[in-house]
Design goal:
Function: Required for the export of heme to the periplasm for the biogenesis of c-type cytochromes.
Strand content: under 5%
Keywords: Cell inner membrane, Cell membrane, Cytochrome c-type biogenesis, Membrane, Transmembrane, Transmembrane helix, Transport
Helix content: over 70%
Order of helices and strands: HHHHHHHHH
Largest sheet: none
Number of domains: 1
Subcellular location: Cell inner membrane
GO molecular function, one term: heme transmembrane transporter activity
Distance between the termini: 40 Å
InterPro entries: Cyt_c_biogenesis_CcmB, Cyt_c_CcmB_bac
Number of strands: 0
């Protein structure tokens, strides 16, 4: 076979990347369409997030001199636990419907399945956070819609979704997945949680952007490590499902 020219090799690589992204999109679109019919994941996460915000508002309203002292922790705690509620449905619903085996047998790279699931989960998280931030503004009179807070929240959510989707796949066939997932997931999320709270606190305390970038860097590094490890382990984990 004749050797491909440089231009042909570039087109071949571009075609491969485009085909891969189409497979990622197909997995994500399948999940989003299923969620649009059931409204199970977003509905559960949003209801929990808003109810938790109200409970925290009632609990801290009379006991805290400045709401800025507690809002960073409240924001990230709610995102943390609301996310656990939604993540176990990422593969749990596939198991219940009996479609997980078909998904794994499809002619699709396992990493594409992972990224498609993660993309769908990221969309669910962002919808819930878009509802949560105005709710916290109303309850605590603290504006969290600041560029650096939104940046940190987005990067933190990307990392959370990456590691959460990976662990959701690993625990999907376990009978106690609803309790096992948070047990194995929350310790891994500790660096992300601490960095998110630190970044949010810096902004609310008006300490300047110089103190923000180290937190952004830690969250970005966490995200990079999560997805690098996910791509290394995804085939091994899929064999255990």
């Amino acid at each position: 076979m004749a050797e491909l020219s440089g231009a042909e090799r570039v087109r071949s690589r571009e075609g491969g990347v485009a085909a891969y992204l189409r497979r990622v999109w197909a997995v994500a679109e399948k999940d989003v369409r299923a969620e649009m019919r059931s409204k199970e994941v977003v509905g559960t996460m949003a209801a929990f997030a808003l109810l938790a915000a109200v409970v925290f508002g009632l609990a801290f309203d009379l006991r805290v001199p400045r709401p800025e002292l507690v809002v960073p922790g409240i924001l990230w705690v709610i995102v943390l636990f609301a996310g656990v509620l939604g993540l176990h449905r990422s593969f749990g619903s596939e198991v219940e419907r009996g479609t997980l085996a078909g998904l794994l047998l499809a002619p699709v790279e396992r990493s594409a399945i992972f990224l498609g699931k993660a993309a769908a989960n990221l969309l669910y998280f962002l919808i819930v956070e878009a509802l949560l931030l105005p709710a916290l503004l109303i309850l605590f009179d603290v504006n969290l819609i600041e560029p650096f807070i939104l940046l940190g929240l987005f990067l933190g959510t990307v990392g959370y979704v990456g590691v959460g989707t990976l662990f959701a796949a690993l625990t999907s066939r376990n009978r106690a997945k609803e309790t096992l997932l948070p047990v194995v997931l929350l310790p891994v999320l500790a660096p992300l949680f601490i960095s998110g709270v630190g970044l949010t606190s810096v902004i609310l305390d008006n300490r300047g952007t110089a103190e923000v970038w180290p937190w952004v860097g830690i969250i970005g590094l966490y995200d990079a490590l999560v997805f690098a490890i996910a791509f290394l382990l995804v085939d091994v984990i899929w064999e255990q499902i």
